TrEMBL record:
Coiled coil: none annotated. The keyword Membrane does not apply. Keywords: Hydrolase. This is Dimethylarginine dimethylaminohydrolase family protein. It comes from the Bacteria.
């Protein structure tokens, strides 16, 4: 059984953290409707969607990806780089603990799950404003015993590694070359986002399907031309909060350990 942990949109979403995106008005009701559709799409792709209640005092709590890294054998609770996000993990840990043994990143380490791209037994981890060297070293220690390798990756000009690059197949990445270098992914087939679709690299892979924001038709076409099946979702209000498709779920197989 494939689980997708999600969380309802906070009524305070408009007070979210923003780093590389200018603040514009967010229609929270619309964000909520888009998020429900996102959940429906995950369910249609075979996920059992578990939904945590909204956290009114935590504007960014819908972005559950950032608070945990779920592997087949273990889950690592992160310590998010933004202080305002540190309380988001507790309820996710309570739920995740039913499925995986838990480890945790401790101060002064910081890691955001959005910086961690797992491909096979390698965790590519963005060195970002949110994930520091101490946190990346702690993550390495936490997962080494389970046979995972941690590979730090330089990024520039974006929030997280997965803003810049995601995997659409085990051998294929979708990359924004302004924000990360193809050379960081030797041996991979690299598909670049369309130059006019700056934020187009963040796609959520569910099995062999790529879940892609609806506003990137040219990058979607590039994926389809490469033989990748794509489903699109309108997440425009969540994009105003500097999120996209990977950030709103933690997807994993229930019984892998
Ligand atoms: C933040 O800045 O933390 C949120 N406003 C957006 C987080 C998006 N997370 C993700 O893409 N993994």
């Amino acid at each position: 059984m494939r689980i997708a942990i999600t969380r309802e949109v906070s009524p305070s979403l408009a007070d979210c953290q923003l780093t590389h995106v200018a603040r514009t008005p967010i229609d929270v009701m619309r964000a909520d409707a888009q998020h429900r559709n996102y959940q429906r799409v995950l369910a249609s792709l075979g996920c059992t969607v578990l939904t945590l209640p909204a956290e009114p005092a935590l504007p960014d709590a819908v972005f559950v990806e950032d608070v945990a890294i779920v592997l087949d054998e273990v889950a690592v609770m992160t310590r998010p780089g933004a202080e305002s996000r540190r309380a988001e993990g507790a309820s996710v840990a309570e739920l995740l603990g039913r499925y995986r043994p838990l480890r945790a990143i401790e101060a002064p380490g910081t890691v955001d799950g959005g910086d961690v791209l797992r491909i096979g037994r390698t965790l590519y981890v963005g060195r970002s404003g949110r994930s520091n060297a101490d946190g990346i070293a702690q993550l390495q220690d936490a997962v080494a015993a389970f046979g995972y390798r941690v590979q730090p990756v330089a990024i520039r000009g974006c929030l997280h590694l997965k803003s810049a690059v995601t995997a659409v197949r085990d051998d294929t990445v979708l990359l924004q070359p302004r924000w990360a270098d193809a050379a960081s992914f030797p041996g991979f087939r690299v598909i670049e986002v369309d130059p006019d679709e700056e934020h187009g690299a963040n796609v959520l892979r569910i099995g062999e399907v790529a879940v892609m924001p609806a506003c990137f038709p040219r990058t979607t076409q590039r994926l389809r031309d490469a033989g990748i099946e794509v489903v699109t979702v309108d997440v425009s209000e969540l994009q105003k909060a500097e999120g996209a498709t990977t950030c709103c779920s933690l997807v994993f197989e229930a019984n892998r350990a």
